[in-house]
Amino acid sequence: MTTTAPRLFVLDTNVLIHDPTSMFRFQEHDVFLPMVVLEELDAAKKGTSEIARSARQVSRFLDELIGTADRANIERGLALPAPVNGAAAAPATGRLFLQTRSLPGELPEPLPGNRPDNTILGTTLGLLTLRADRHVVLVSKDINLRIKARLLGLTAEDYSNDKVLDDVNLLYSGIERLPDDFWEAGAQHVDCWQESGHTCYRIAGAFATACYPNQCLYQENGQGFEGLVRRVEDGAAVVERAQDYRSPKHAVWGIAARNREQNFALNLLLDPGVDFVTLMGTAGTGKTLLALAAGLAQTMEQQRYREIVMTRVTVPVGEDIGFLPGTEEEKMTPWMGALLDNLEVLTETEIGGDWGRQATTDLLQKRIKIRSLNFMRGRTFFNRYVIIDEAQNLTPKQIKTLVTRAGPGTKIVCLGNITQIDTPYLSETTSGLTYVVDRLKHWEHSGHIILRRGERSRLADVASEYL
Question: Could you tell me where in the chain the CATH 3.40.50.300 domains are found?
């Protein structure tokens, strides 16, 4: 077998649905689509779901590629251009082959599993026999199919072009600890002044060039400096001392920060110059509570936003509960337990007793709208405070669809925990939340922080650590 020749990749249906542009992303290598893949795409194209939209997009790409080509040209392979949406590592120079005849693939009898998967395996085995001069590779997001392929002696790989990072530990954390001697060592490169009631520092040198806008900086020694990088310009970083929201008199809608990361989160959430905030953290770190408290303070007290819009992916952890009756908001209510639980905390008041609490709850719920992801296309939110919960279950395409809904005066807050992904074929390195954090970390109007310390209860903390 010639190892230097371009490889021939056989694509599974789930790869094309996961990324409709995947066939353009194999650079100089060739792509082969079995006939059963076309049949599965045809079966999946009906409806308004994201899967149906992706299937229709793949069909449109194939129609454009085939054009007026006859059978002879199709058998010789169709030229694959570079993808229009999204840059490839190098221009595509390979060719697309479609199955036009049955191939001599013999599978063990009886081979367990569903028929389409077995048909793809048989096609790959046939290609291995027919194209002995090529290195044939099956590409699938289905782990079980890849296992079966390897048991049959086939080379099988996951589709990895959509990986944002090779290792999730390389993900931008949004926070950086300063050395204990930072100010003494670089004192000659630091200018200090007051701006709009805030203390600002201009820091020059190699450290400044490695900073990101709205990156959180802290120092352990002394009084424990905490600041945020407001901008990086001319080889210097302008750092603003962070507001302290830990004391009850500076509480946000009755909520005070309990640790450093929560304090930084409130600084980002309450800053009108930051249009996009991502909060990551395990269960109990306060993501939803902080986002809601900051939203209520800016909606009800400061009148900065007209209302709060909250949405999330409806992926069940256990068995699905089936279709739900009612309006869009009523259908989404079972998925919004986190919102309702945190509203109970935020509406605690001794004024008026139960009647006062009920009146406060009713008032707040009129300013909080629950919306489904299924109806987000084509919408534009003006002067809204949008919270996207469980964002780790979104694909990069879905999170792009949501973020582009933002109109003038709108702030979007994404919450999630990339260690709890429930969506099939998504991982920590391919999640839409990871994608958006990595892509927007250079933008001066975005901020990100990872909340690491649980504050829910000592039981929740020990469960997160040991269970």
Answer: 254-466
Residue with tokens 């001392």: 241
- For the chain, give percent helix, strand, coil, nearest 5: 35, 20, 45
Whether the Cβ atoms of residue 11 and residue 32 lie closer than 8 Å to each other: yes
For the entire predicted model, the pTM comes to: 0.80
Q: So what's the architecture of 8-157 in CATH?
A: 3-Layer(aba) Sandwich (3.40)
- Write down the architecture of domain 254-466 according to CATH: 3-Layer(aba) Sandwich (3.40)
What is the spatial order of strands in the sheet that 136-139 belongs to? 78-79, 95-98, 30-33, 8-11, 136-139, 155-157
Sign of the Cα pseudo-torsion (155, 159, 160, 161, in order): positive
Structure tokens at 450: 């990872």
Decide: residue 124, CB within 10 A, 0-12 exposed, 13-18 middle, 19+ buried: buried
What would the pLDDT profile of 345-395 be if each residue is shown by its tens digit?
A: 777 655 445 655 665 666 666 788 877 776 677 788 999 999 998 899 998
User: Which two three-digit tokens encode residue 90?
Assistant: 């190098």
Res 87 pLDDT > 60: no
Query: Out of 50-64, 92-106, 295-309, 363-377, which region has the weakest mean confidence (pLDDT)?
Result: 363-377
277 Cβ contact list (under 8 Å, min separation 6): 265, 268, 269, 291, 411, 412, 413, 414, 446, 447, 448
> Which residues lie across from 79 on neighbouring strands?
95
- How far apart, in whole angstroms, are the C-alpha atoms of residue 19 and residue 397? 9
DSSP letters, 154-209, are: -EEE---TT-S-SSGGGS--SEEEPPTTHHHHTGGGEEEEEETTEEEEEEESHHHH
With beta carbons less than 8 A apart as the criterion, state whether 280 and 357 touch.
no
Mean pLDDT of the chain: 84
Count CA atoms closer than 13 A to 13's CA, side-chain side: 22
Measured at the CA of 100, the angle between CA 96 and CA 102, to 5 degrees, comes to 125
